[in-house]
Amino acid sequence: MTNLLAPxxxxxxxxxxxxxLSLAPDGADLTEIVAQSKFSKTTTFRVLASLREVNYVFxxxxxxxxxxxxxxAEMARNAEQVNVSAIAERGMARLAEMSxxxxxxxxxxxxxxxxxxxxxxxxxxxxxxxxKGDRRPLGVGAGSLALFCSLSxxxxxxxxxxxxxxxxxxxxxxxxxxSEYEFFQVNGYARNRGGVVRGMSAIGVPVITASGRLVxxxxxxxxxxxxxxxxxxxxxxxGLKREARRLADRLNAMEKEQNK
Amino acid sequence: MTNLLAPxxxxxxxxxxxxxLSLAPDGADLTEIVAQSKFSKTTTFRVLASLREVNYVFxxxxxxxxxxxxxxAEMARNAEQVNVSAIAERGMARLAEMSxxxxxxxxxxxxxxxxxxxxxxxxxxxxxxxxKGDRRPLGVGAGSLALFCSLSxxxxxxxxxxxxxxxxxxxxxxxxxxSEYEFFQVNGYARNRGGVVRGMSAIGVPVITASGRLVxxxxxxxxxxxxxxxxxxxxxxxGLKREARRLADRLNAMEKEQNK
DNA sequence: CCCAATAATTCCGTTTATCGGAATTTTTTA
DNA sequence: TAAAAAATTCCGATAAACGGAATTATTGGG
Lengths: 260, 260
What we know:
homodimer, alpha+beta, Arc Repressor Mutant, subunit A, Beta-Lactamase, 2 domains, six-stranded antiparallel beta sheet, two-stranded antiparallel ribbon, 8 strands, DNA-binding, Helix-turn-helix domain-containing protein (chains A, B), DNA binding (chains A, B), DNA-binding (chains A, B)
């Protein structure tokens, strides 16, 4: 009999094993992986052997401990999100320090927005609406909304259609998004007024390279008291725009470099 | 009959499909992937379906084009090499600009050293000994040698034994490595005098965090004329040491952050 | 707007690679 | 040095992956 919780197919199994490893920065031995993955020892072993073959995992010959391998890292370098997140690190840190609030970085994937990085500022009341890895429909949340508003009319329409039910879960409709789009056009940033959490607001701006590619959105979230118009205009927005531009410039430089 | 060139096992097949995708920054459609991977359409399709299930690939619903997915990116963020490479970006750029020569970043993996990043300086004669992704036995090349020399005596011995034949391909022996180790102890950096390419030299230093973890090596390579003792002592070495320390400090800060 | 051509997806009988329990070997610990 | 634990290999049973063919969806003229 096959394990009820077991994913179907070797690829799903491999993914689970890799998951376990990615949560173990210092690696894990076979028994540990068996325990975490819930697969039989034999299966786990064979999956690991296959993954080792393609350099997705590496086994330290002396300790027999398994770690994520070089191939994975190499491939990841090609997966843009990683780069965006890594490159944004310093800028986000600057924003978090400057504003003392929480800074989010999101990237678009199809009709969704994925939070790929987060920096927490010094202010004691924190607004942790999004975790790293969280996925939301485009248009829900300040960063996600900034991404949505940077799409073409046709794309926005598609997103609304595709995500209709998902958007409804967050109380968003095509109309509400259209109204936020207007706001974005006029003010140059997207806002999120207590949509998900009451008493909390956020504003977001898109990150667009010189070649016109929409790569990410930067957003800052805080309790309403810290999101008055004056503070937004004098502190938050200039900061976001500055870092968004920097990030775009650096990504652009890397793009050029790649073509050499 | 199964394809002669086909890798064995679903995991190897999945890896090949991911390889194809990672070489296609703008994604690829099914036929393209079929062509590149040499698998049957059905197999390719099914592999992609499995990969999609675990978010390793993402298929744009409107264009049906496949790309590397969010999960891969998320996982990669945990694979240290990526971070090291991304974090080192600026420092390497500074070194490349300052020295005008070529800057290499290598990380250790078992008994090998993997080049994970490279920055080319302005000087017209370039010494591109290593590509991103290249793997060498520990001890071959300045960066790799710096890693080797930062190991314990027992580890060095193991490396020599394990890599014996591989080292021989590069004309290196236990004795030659021992002699370079002496040099490293005395001078605080590793050197590579035309070992691989005649007329070219390089020097490297290790990057070690405050907690004592050996994470990488930074190296600079140039033609011999630009690697005279004076230039090394006045320009190259101080630069390398400074950036190595900075990098170590940043990695250390991130390590602490992780434990929160 | 319809039809042809191309691409994507599903179906299905066959075969093979994967499965897990048990046996074996290696490594660690007492 | 023996006992215990962990890693690895073996093997028969079987589920899962295979690919060719059929089906469905999409695209690109005319």
